[in-house]
Lipoprotein (Leptospira montravelensis), 219 residues
Amino acid sequence: MKKIPLLIGFLFFDCALTIISPGLNSNYKLNKISSFKFQEAAFYGSTFYDQSAYFLEFENLKLIVSDPNNATFNKNDSMNMDQFDQNNINILYEICYDKEKNLNILDDIVNYKFKLNDFESISVVSYFYPYSYTARGNYIKKYKPYYVNEKYPYQKNIYKTGYDFLMCIRNIVSFRKNVQEISNSLEILTPRNHLFNFSYDFDNKFIFYQNEEMDFSAK
């Protein structure tokens, strides 16, 4: 009888885990504690607008950096591990927008400001990231990364997961390790002077946060 609750606990944990993309899953999603900003949604396109943040374990960065969906702002550039220091705190902040809107998205994204526990970021690496999506009426939901590798043994081949894509921008934001505490607050200031806040706990390791926002579909 004692084994049953433990088994149920493992099943619940497995169901709650959503694979977002290579190297990233929902266990590392930061808790969003700020309210919805209509002005931000209107600027980026209310049908497509979405934002989220994740804590990055350094060992997962290699998978994130080598993701076939990554597209740097300058076509001649490429992401590499030399851009990141394992002694820093790395957080991924993702914002999705309507790619059909007439936005100067590159000028917009460089004017974001990030703080962790009131300390400013020391570097931000930004790049495009597309998703396939599902649509129900005017509601758009991210489905999978737009490009995925075929299963073994054909992993070098890449195929598309949809006919159209939702465009997002990912930002890998780095902070000095000594600014991190047990309870942490990430503050994001947009170019329109709107604040967004996320939180997470870290006690020798990242503390998984489970709440009503967790996605219970495993991909």
